[in-house]
From TrEMBL:
Principal subcellular localisation of the protein: mitochondrion
Residue span, Isopropylmalate dehydrogenase-like domain: 39-362
UniProt protein name: Isopropylmalate dehydrogenase-like domain-containing protein
Primary role: Performs an essential role in the oxidative function of the citric acid cycle.
Similarity remark: Belongs to the isocitrate and isopropylmalate dehydrogenases family.
GO CC field: mitochondrion
The keyword 4Fe-4S is assigned to this record: no
Matches recorded under SMART domains: Iso_dh (SM01329)
A GO biological process held by the record: isocitrate metabolic process
Cell location: Mitochondrion
SUPFAM superfamilies: Isocitrate/Isopropylmalate dehydrogenase-like
Signal sequence extent: none
Amino acid sequence: MATRRTLPLLRHLTSSPSRFHPTRSVTYMPRPGDGASRTVTLIPGDGVGPLVTDAVEQVFAAMHAPVAFEKYDCDGDMKAVPQEVMDSIKRNKVCLKGGLMTPMSGGISSLNLHLRKELDLFASLVNCQNFPELPTRHENVDIVVIRENTEGEYAGLEHEVVPGVVGSLKVITKFCSERIAKYAFEYAHLNNRKMVTAVHKANIIKLADGLLLESCREVASKYPSIKYNEIIVDSCCMQLVSKPEQFDVMVTPNLYGNLVASTAAGIAGDTGVMPGGNVGSDYAIFEQRASAGNVGKIEWVEQKKANPVALLLSSAMMLRHLRFPLFADRLETAVERVILEGKYRTKDLGGNGTTQQIVDAVIANVD
């Protein structure tokens, strides 16, 4: 789904013309029919969602990307994802979406969870990597967090035993543990990653988290060239904020993955620049890694200053998924150039730029 961004190459490309020596490009040989336009379901979502999805539409149009969007309105106050939206995603196989808010009360469940369960999007992937010229406390951060997406604490199995006493079940199965472990090691193998770290709390939650570790160990034995280790989740958080460069690919159960991905994104720059998505055997949904607070920033919506970078990079991941790798390269390079130049940055990145200014700058750099 994703590859490492070629930032050292980008530094070379942005150097003075006298120092630039073009290298021979590698030809991409498509299969017959690969150039046909693909239809993708688009859900603008809530809050800043319409702003950032519109940014993607503008950039794709400027690039003449072979993608047609089938757009559906859907918001977090709905009790369920409309059937026409589900039918569209199942027909197109791929979806790009803005954030969908989950109400804290009112008995409405998360539409994000509904989509993941209905489509069996068992793997969430977030790529957390430093950008040159974007100030961060740590350098050389390049972490991919792969999170099991369908069970654990997010299974939603809660009930009130008696008034004032609530039970919440954490469900872990061998089947789901094995397939997320396989996905993590397969990802590492295909993307030339060197290490997979399993995050757990098996010292306390011995059976449930122990089952995940058992599955990871079994899969790791089939990939001898990839280093495998394990870390307790609380120690993991401490290590992330003190020495994040030690991590490569991380595989986690559902709740821990949410926390670890947010922490890693914050360390690497901001959730506003970290791409991500959810994938299963049949379908994929690409979205940005953003907290609910960022999705619903009213002032960003009113001032039209939402940061579109994360969703633009997520859409580049989508282009690779659709087998349009050179379009993905062009888009990623354009976004990285805009960040490197530093002229236009939104408020979350220390600037005062608008969404449209970022879009215009990306379009200007896209070729």
